[in-house]
Design a protein that fits this description.
The chain is an alpha/beta fold. It has helices at about 5-30, 40-55, 60-75, 80-85, 120-130, 185-200, 215-220, 265-270, 290-295, 310-325, 330-340; strands spanning about 90-95, 100-105, 110-115, 145, 155, 165-170, 205, 230-235, 245-250, 280, 305-310, 345-350, 355-365, 375-385, 385-390. α2 (about 40-55) packs across α3 (about 60-75) and α10 crosses α11 (about 330-340).
Amino acid sequence: MTAAPLASAAGSMVDDAADVAVRRAVVHRLHADPPPSSDGGRAALREHLAGLLRDEAPLADAGRADRLLDELVREVDGLGPLDPLLADPAVTEIMVNGPGRAYVERAGRLVAVDLGLDAAAISRLAERIVAPLGLRLDRSSPIADARLTDGSRVHAVLPPLAPDGPCLTIRRFSTLPVELDAFGVGEAGEAFLRAAVRGGWNLLVAGATSAGKTTLLNALSAAIGSSERIVTIEETAELRLAQPHVVRLEARPANAEGVGAIGVRDLVRCALRMRPDRIVVGEVRGGEALDMLQALNTGHDGSLSTVHANSPTDALSRLETLVLLAGVALPIAAVRHQIAAALDAVVFVTRAADGARRVDAVAELGADLSRPASRVRSLFERRGGVLVAVARPSRPARRPGLDLQAGWPCY
């Protein structure tokens, strides 16, 4: 590197350090001299910060002053350097792994970003997110799950559980609907999945973390008729159903005193008293799996849910384990009978190396889940990068007047 670029880089680092020092000084003065109460909102705050900034950096040119003022407003009234990332529709996940270590996911790929956040700033951001929700985040309660106003899911972990500094993970969800064809299902696969939803099959969407299970669930729900009453149950509200008659239920964690928690299992039981035509459980990860199976076996045909699993067969094994976590002494044979009666198919979704989400298989449940060889029966498999039909469905539609084999592709 020649002398000129070296000098330019050194100058840039000095400017960055100076800007950080100015911002910290302004924020410190703001805490000591808060703006007077006013109905001006963010405009009044910006004006007050502009005055403090002129005192701290009187020689700053107009461009630098405007940039510093924008950063200060975001830091004080927003989420600081996270705001531009949250405004970028290409960013699907933000991961702050402690001071000086942050990444974002764009198009399924992780990219390092420089946010200039120290440990104290990360902790302040996390506290700012959870405070309006009545949650507690400190050393005595160092883990919190929350969501932003746009529905993005937030998970925060503070020291001592995070020895390298506070960690903040924000999972974002597209505000625009994603169609089934975005999952590479092809014309035949899309037609069958839509017919299965309309025909009242109970579907379980399975896949790994960040494979696109919730997004696929949203896409599948588009086939539900507009006249049906749907109750959605989630730990953190993420689903965006387009139907007009939707009741959304969201679990509630314990408050700062450690009381008042309402879990997904409670909401599943609550939903049964709300006369739903269909129940959509965002994700089963505990004893609520038993209540969900009971609900599906009591006339709520065409319901949907998701579960973490590595294959359609593993999804059933995991569901069996989750049912046992309910603490009810059911024999495994009874659990398997409940699963076989409640669910019709598993839709397995994966994320490729390039970040693309794809439906990898659609498997119909067998009648006898006690035999490993007949637990699932593949209807669609991905071969050569294409989802192809490999067998006809044997289960009938749960709703009259619909034939899932109508127009079945030749193979």
